[in-house]
């Protein structure tokens, strides 16, 4: 997982040497630009632009039905992206009107990315200025630099986390419906023009990117951000999510293309169960809604925010395992226990659903949608979903982050030591 800054090595973190230049190393090597923010903004722009161009082509060809769904999914995802960035960034005191105009124009990710780039270069320039000052003491200079680095890390961490949530919302509320729609259109008209292929390609990249972030955020909720992902774990998650979501989308596309409008009742019932299950459990428990989770919002807005969270959770559960369980009676909203029975129930239900939809596709009386054997396609889809379950079991059995191996208590102790040094320095100066 990308980090914004790297921890200095032990030689730099040790006792200060006598030479002044050795105590001030080049801190540029410890501050890294968060390229995930830049990639998220570019992916957002690419998907929006390609969707608008496809909308223009459908409008030119008078395809009102496909045109409406294409622009509808695009606008819904873009608006929810703006709301997610506005919710996670509590910075309305500075750059208020600029940020508001950017979000109104649906350019919030671009404005946030530019803001983060400007702050990054401002901090580097500030560090260079502090290094050249000779009137202050060495300890004071070191304290100012550490304060600048900590401030930069904190702001970049909030930026990255907000963009992580934005990528998840973009994936499950816009990209997956968009890709499913365009694949259904491709199967119906038996052609795939370049503009539609570009839109599907960007949607697929967005789905892969957001699904991996969904896993990372679920583990951050469980371990309170105190974990690290190794390369093997990241590769396992990527294979698991790609196989699971790809097989699910292909199953939905074949099912919808086979029954067309007759498939809507089955899909609506399936989605409604995932959407209403947390609220039914909340009503049965006869508890009250959490009040400490959403601090900056008025009490009347709590129900609205919880409804959006439930909608996002239902969209994730409809496509793949979310990694968390909503518990609306809990102050933290989510249940961190990660019971194995929840995963087993989810994958059992989804496997049965996929088999039913594949059987409907196989035995429905219609002209063949594909130019190859339908039985072979149906078998490959089911095997792909079973392979995703295998990667999921491999991850949770052998590669799941644990407190003993992947946590970094040394860094936590170092941060606490630096904070205590800053406090003692302030007291001595007073």
Question: How is this structure best described in words?
Answer:
This protein is mainly α and 430 residues long. It folds into 2 domains: 200 residues, no CATH class; 159 residues, no CATH class. Helix content is 73%, strand content 1%. The protein has 14 helices and 2 strands, in the order αααααααααααββααα. It has a two-stranded antiparallel ribbon. Strand 1 and strand 2 form a beta hairpin. The longest helix is centred in the middle third of the chain and has 52 residues. The chain is globular, with a radius of gyration of 25 Å. Keywords: Membrane, Transmembrane, Transmembrane helix. It comes from Pipistrellus kuhlii (Kuhl's pipistrelle). Its main location: membrane. It is found in: Membrane. InterPro entries: XK-rel, XK-related_adapter.
Give the N-terminus to C-terminus distance in angstroms. Answer: 41 Å
Please outline the major beta sheet. 2 strands, antiparallel
The tally of strands reads 2
User: What Rg is obtained from the alpha carbons, in whole angstroms?
Assistant: 25 Å
What percentage of amino acids are in beta strands?
under 5%
Shape: globular
What are the defining features of this structure?
430 residues; mainly alpha; two-stranded antiparallel ribbon; 73% helix; globular; disordered N terminus
Topology at a glance:
Blueprint: H1 10-13, H2 20-23, H3 35-60, H4 64-88, H5 96-104, H6 108-132, H7 138-189, H8 194-223, H9 231-259, H10 264-285, H11 302-319, E1 325-326, E2 334-335, H12 340-363, H13 374-399, H14 409-429
Antiparallel strand pairs: 1-2
Helix pairs in contact: 3-4, 3-7, 3-8, 4-7, 5-6, 6-7, 7-8, 7-9, 8-9, 9-12, 9-13, 10-11, 12-13
């Amino acid at each position: 997982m990308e980090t914004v800054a790297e921890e200095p090595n032990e030689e730099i973190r040790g006792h200060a040497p006598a030479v002044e230049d050795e105590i001030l190393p080049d801190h540029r090597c410890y501050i890294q630009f968060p390229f995930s923010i830049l990639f998220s903004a570019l992916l957002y722009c690419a998907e929006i632009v390609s969707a608008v161009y496809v909308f223009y082509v459908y409008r030119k060809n008078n395809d009102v039905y496909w045109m409406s769904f294409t622009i509808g999914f695009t606008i819904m995802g873009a608006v929810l992206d703006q709301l997610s960035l506005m919710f996670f960034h509590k910075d309305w005191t500075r750059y208020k009107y600029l940020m508001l105009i950017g979000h109104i124009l649906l350019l919030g990710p671009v404005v946030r990315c530019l803001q983060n780039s400007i702050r990054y270069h401002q901090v580097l320039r500030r560090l260079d200025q502090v290094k050249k000052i000779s009137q202050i003491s060495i300890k004071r200079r070191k304290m100012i630099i550490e304060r600048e680095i900590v401030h930069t890390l904190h702001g970049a961490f909030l930026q990255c986390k907000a963009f992580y949530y934005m990528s998840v919302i973009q994936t499950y509320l816009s990209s997956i419906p968009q890709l499913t729609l365009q694949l259904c259109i491709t199967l119906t008209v038996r052609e795939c023009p370049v503009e539609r292929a570009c839109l599907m390609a960007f949607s697929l990249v967005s789905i892969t990117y957001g699904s991996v972030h969904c896993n990372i955020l679920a583990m951050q909720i469980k371990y309170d951000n105190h974990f690290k992902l190794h390369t093997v774990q990241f590769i396992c998650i990527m294979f698991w999510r790609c196989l699971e979501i790809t097989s699910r989308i292909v199953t939905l596309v074949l099912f919808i293309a086979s029954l067309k409008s007759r498939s809507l009742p089955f899909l609506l019932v399936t989605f409604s169960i995932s959407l209403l299950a947390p609220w039914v459990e909340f009503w049965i428990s006869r508890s009250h809604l959490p009040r400490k989770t959403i601090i900056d919002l008025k009490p009347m807005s709590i129900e609205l925010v919880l409804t959006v969270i439930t909608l996002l959770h239902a969209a994730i559960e409809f496509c793949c395992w979310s990694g968390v369980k909503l518990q609306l009676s809990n102050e933290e909203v989510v249940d961190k226990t990660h019971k194995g029975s929840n995963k087993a129930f989810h994958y059992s239900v989804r496997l049965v659903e996929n088999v039913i939809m594949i059987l409907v596709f196989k035995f429905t009386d219609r002209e063949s949608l594909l130019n190859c054997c339908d039985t072979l396609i149906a078998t490959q889809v089911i095997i792909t979903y079973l392979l995703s379950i295998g990667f999921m079991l491999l991850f949770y059995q052998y590669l799941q982050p644990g407190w003993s191996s992947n946590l970094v208590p040394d860094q936590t102790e170092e941060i606490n030591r630096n904070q205590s040094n800053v406090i003692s320095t302030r007291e001595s100066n007073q």
